[in-house]
């Protein structure tokens, strides 16, 4: 793992990009492929492992051309279901990191972490933790670029690949950018690159020196203006949060067992505690709980439970999630659990539920716990806990079952 960071603080946009995504999933799931040149897709190369890229294999490239470059490459057919599942798990980590996530494709996203310093630490700390979580929970390498703008964050991750982290501090942007080849800029394909090279322009610094008028005469007025702005690190686009999600989830890797049932329960409590807050923060309610399990041999199982009515109450979700876990206890002891995940699905706006219920009704829920009828007034408690955590940081309060555990998933922070 390679890292280059500074102590300069204003860079708070992360570009997180999985490394050779499809090929990494194949190497994760089949240990025989690790350390070997792997090509996904026979007719056309859809992905190549870094070992294969070292032989010059690129995407997209014909399969036979790839094998001429590297005759001993292992060619495997794509497994899109596995990639979709891995992508979902990685995006769960993204959304668990910050509410401001802009997905770019199945394996990359921008994350704005600027407002999280008090709760989660500096952008570099957040980026490190994100990389660690994706490795531990999904088993994949991911590279993170950190900068003041989306453009620079994306360039930073490209430069830091594979399996790296690179921060471009605001005072060092041009120093970072100008030595890079023009091909690093968005919008510079082979045609534009050839035109620039013909005019003696090879680096981003050359573009900045040329000025936008001269540049316009080489590549056209609008492309020239675009490239000139990028060469001076001007990129005002904010992280844009896309369509609303249909589910939110989070998971924890727990290492190889054996694990006591009480440890597994504590993990579920920590996950639900966090998801409940995210749900309320987004002003949403859920009806379906999904428990996801991964075992020693990387096989998976899911169990789900749909509640009688939609809720945003941590307590009600907790009861449902613990019951799902208890129902799966045979599976857990037989097969050795290495990862637990919870997703909240069937999401709706909290407001629409309040309209559908008589006034005050949403504050009281009945849940059956080991045969006893318990009436809980949980929304006031949730609101109080959320408020304290917002003021004093996520570690200000910890559920009793999690006391003394290092794995409750928060960075302890003292009040300022
Ligand atoms: Mg990628």
UniProtKB/TrEMBL annotation:
Site feature Substrate discrimination, where: 22
State the Gene Ontology BP annotations.
Answer: DNA repair; DNA-templated DNA replication; error-prone translesion synthesis; SOS response
Sequence positions that bind Mg(2+): 17, 107
Per the UniProt entry, the Enzyme Commission number(s) are 2.7.7.7
One annotated Gene Ontology cellular component of this protein: cytosol
The record describes how the cofactor is bound as:
Binds 2 magnesium ions per subunit.
Cofactor(s) needed, names only, are: Mg(2+)
Catalytic class of the enzyme: transferase
**Could you tell me where this protein is found in the cell?**
Cytoplasm
Alphabetical keyword list: Cytoplasm, DNA damage, DNA repair, DNA replication, DNA-binding, DNA-directed DNA polymerase, Magnesium, Metal-binding, Mutator protein, Nucleotidyltransferase, Transferase
Which residues are responsible for catalysis? 108
A molecular function (GO) term: damaged DNA binding
**Which reaction is this enzyme known to catalyze?**
DNA(n) + a 2'-deoxyribonucleoside 5'-triphosphate = DNA(n+1) + diphosphate
Enumerate the spans annotated as UmuC domain.
13-189
Q: What does this protein do?
A: Poorly processive, error-prone DNA polymerase involved in untargeted mutagenesis. Copies undamaged DNA at stalled replication forks, which arise in vivo from mismatched or misaligned primer ends. These misaligned primers can be extended by PolIV. Exhibits no 3'-5' exonuclease (proofreading) activity. May be involved in translesional synthesis, in conjunction with the beta clamp from PolIII.
On subunit structure and binding partners, the annotation says: Monomer.
Q: Which family does it belong to?
A: Belongs to the DNA polymerase type-Y family.
Tell me the protein's name: DNA polymerase IV
The species this protein belongs to is: Williamsia herbipolensis
């Amino acid at each position: 793992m390679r890292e280059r960071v500074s102590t300069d603080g204003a860079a708070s946009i992360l570009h997180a990009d999985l490394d050779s995504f499809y090929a990494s999933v194949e190497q994760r799931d089949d240990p025989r492929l690790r350390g070997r040149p792997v090509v996904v897709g026979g007719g056309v190369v859809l992905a190549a492992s870094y070992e294969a890229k070292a032989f010059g294999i690129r995407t997209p490239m014909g399969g036979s051309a790839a094998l001429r470059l590297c005759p001993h490459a292992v060619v495997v057919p794509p497994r899109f279901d596995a990639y979709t599942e891995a992508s979902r798990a990685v995006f769960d980590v993204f959304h668990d990191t910050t509410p401001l996530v802009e997905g770019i494709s199945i394996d990359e996203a921008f994350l704005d972490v600027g407002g999280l310093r008090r709760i989660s630490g500096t952008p570099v700390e957040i980026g490190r933790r994100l990389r660690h979580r994706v490795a531990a929970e999904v088993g994949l390498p991911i590279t993170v670029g950190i900068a003041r703008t989306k453009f620079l964050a994306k360039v930073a991750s490209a430069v830091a690949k594979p399996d790296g982290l690179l921060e471009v501090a605001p005072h060092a942007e041009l120093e970072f950018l100008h030595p890079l080849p023009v091909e690093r800029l968005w919008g510079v394909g082979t045609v534009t690159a050839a035109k620039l090279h013909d005019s003696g322009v090879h680096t981003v610094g050359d573009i900045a020196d040329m000025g936008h008028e001269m540049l316009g005469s080489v590549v056209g007025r609008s492309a020239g203006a675009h490239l000139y702005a990028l060469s001076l690190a001007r990129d005002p686009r904010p992280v844009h949060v896309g369509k609303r999600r249909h589910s939110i989830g989070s998971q924890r890797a727990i290492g190889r067992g054996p694990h006591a049932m009480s440890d597994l329960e504590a993990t579920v409590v920590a996950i639900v505690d966090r998801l409940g807050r995210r749900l309320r923060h987004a002003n949403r309610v859920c009806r379906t709980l999904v428990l996801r399990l991964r075992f020693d041999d990387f096989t998976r199982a899911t169990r789900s439970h749909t509640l009688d009515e939609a809720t945003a109450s941590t307590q009600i979700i907790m009861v449902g999630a613990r019951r799902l876990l208890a129902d799966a206890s045979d599976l857990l002891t037989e097969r050795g659990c290495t990862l637990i995940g919870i997703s909240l699905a069937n999401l709706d706006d909290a407001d629409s539920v309040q309209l559908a219920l008589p006034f005050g009704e949403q504050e009281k829920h009945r849940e059956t716990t080991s045969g006893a009828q318990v009436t809980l007034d949980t929304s006031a408690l949730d609101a109080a806990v959320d408020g304290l955590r917002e003021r004093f940081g996520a570690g200000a309060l910890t559920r009793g079952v999690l006391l003394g555990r290092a794995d409750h998933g928060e960075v302890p922070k003292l009040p300022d």
